[in-house]
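Please go through the sequence and fold tokens given here and tell me how the chain folds. Record follows.
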Amino acid sequence: MVYEGWMVRYGRRKIGRSYIHMRYFVLETRLLAYYKRKPQHNVVPTKTLLIDGNCRVEDRGLKTHHGHMVYVLSVYNKKEKYNRITMAAFNIQEALIWKEKIESVIDQYQDSQASIGNKYLSFEYKSGMDNGRTASSSDHESQFSAAEDEYEYDSRRRLSRRTTIGNGPPNWVFDWTKEMDTDLANQNSNNQAFSRKHWRLLQCQNGLRIFEELIEVDFLPKSYSRAMKAVGVVEATCEDIFELIMSMDATRFEWDCSFQYGSLVEEVDGHTAILYHSLQLDWFPMFVWPRDLCYVRYWRRNDDGSYVVLFRSREHENCGPQPGFVRAHIESGGFNISPMKPRNGRPRAQVQHLMQIDLKGWGVGYISSFQQHCLLKMLNCVAGLREYFSQTDNRTAAPRIPVMVNMTSVSNSSKKTHKLNSSLDQIHAENKNGVLMDEYSDEDEDQVVDQETFPSSIEIEDKRTASDEEPQDQINLSIFSGNLRRDDHDKARDCWTLSEGKNFRVRSKQFCYDKSKVPAGKHLMELVAVDWFKDTKRIDHVARRRGCAAQVASDKGLFSIVFNLQVPGSTHYSMVFYFVTKKLVPGSLFQRFVDGDDEFRNSRLKLIPSVPKGSWIVRQSVGSTPCLLGKAVDCNYIRGPKYLEIDVDIGSSTVANGVLGLVIGVITTLVVDMAFLVQANTTDELPERLIGAVRVSHIELSSAVVPVLDSDTT
């Protein structure tokens, strides 16, 4: 055994869509294999690859699957290139470890075969670099011809393997980080537009040194944009900083104050992608339009462990000018992340962020403070990185980047709005399913096909997730009624409506491995009615009331679950939600919850609250953190023949009662979302599914009615 652990299987289905599965990989001295579970005793692996001197490790760079980024490696035999294993990791550090381990095993066979001329050719001489462009050992392999495969060399001249990942950038993307390479600077000093002598310190701000390009001319045209860069030290590993920079999810709001929205337009290859990025510059927003960008992003990892990320603007047919934005132009830009010696046991890295950008618009050439204000705000993200890592111990969630479906501009403004909304809807649909890692799927062969027009991800994935958990027949909602009316209009008052699953984040299929969460999908049950009751005493067991939705469902042979949220006070209130389904799926997590004991129910029943509209203090008090109801407040479970009622006594918790006292006084001004679900703890139970979700809007206390309850015979 050389190395083992959980990794990601990456591939494509026959329909062309990518998939990723969690698999347990084992590297032995002659074999690379993976299993669906951690192997016990003599378990047969799902797939194996014999390791010898003819094997190669190909770096495929960064791939995006439903917004999640994975770093992909492909291991193959050069004599049988169709026999390969493609593996990936959520962080580049893990991918590098596996790459190093596999190459070390290959090297052992290459050493033993050197005497008979079977050479492992994934070695690169530094003198062989083309114009300073570096390549990984595996990428360089693909550039060799068949004749070169038989090339023999003196073993005494062999050099150590290079660890650079990524070929050189496209010719039209300027690599400003070459100024740090003294050898190249000496060879091409006349061609280096950003050598050290062209920079001068402009100011020190937020612990950063801000440099400005020093132009040795007397006159500059107004259209010329002067380059600036920020240099700072961040106490984190280069890998952690790199992964944070590459992500464009909500985490970016925590360290980049110029970020408003970002998404992937096109994935060119594993190291090059085209991105859309809108900026939050806040410079007289009443008069100055916001800016956005469409640019190419290239990245690589160098031999010394440093990372380079380069930017340059590029037009793209699926990312035309957007209404309400001015399209800025990046001449050159990016990050250079270099390792430094640790201090007090903490890793450190120097981060350089350069930006040469033309913000366009009428005011740029006449108001110099606008350009400088915007540039400084963008460069200050280095200080944001430093503070982010100084205040964060661990990052558990995998980085994400939304996928842009189509943002091509059209002439008609109504078409623009329709297309943009359609694109955003499709983005939400893609993200709805998150990362699908089906532990029991047998689809483990690489299937590379041409990109075509395929069915939407909802059509494909819902067949696998929804069909196993819920019946497909529709329920006739007209037979149910409650005293609180349903109204789906946004500005409606004293009513309820359904809240979509995408408003809540639940545990994903791979939560056990990376703690990631995804937008919830379709509900398990239908919300059919809501009652709003009041009485002089606490109202228990409302499902016994004749004619209520639970009784109607029982008469029709349907199963219902009733949530009775009990609000204490001089007048007791109860808001009752009735969820209905055709039948329980035997063996499912939900069925085990319904038929389990109270201890199991208390450990699993979860509420996700949210206040989309309300005062700041109420939104902060309520929050949106999931809560195990049975652990926070007293819950009484009443199991009927065709229903389960859960009476939630909010007054049993001092904290909940305090928040409730704050909320009840301003309840008429609030819009509240609530989602109920059963917490999933194991891979067999994941991903989580919502029982149901509801939105109640501007509830009036005076609209509550006194219920007429039958005698409790239970």
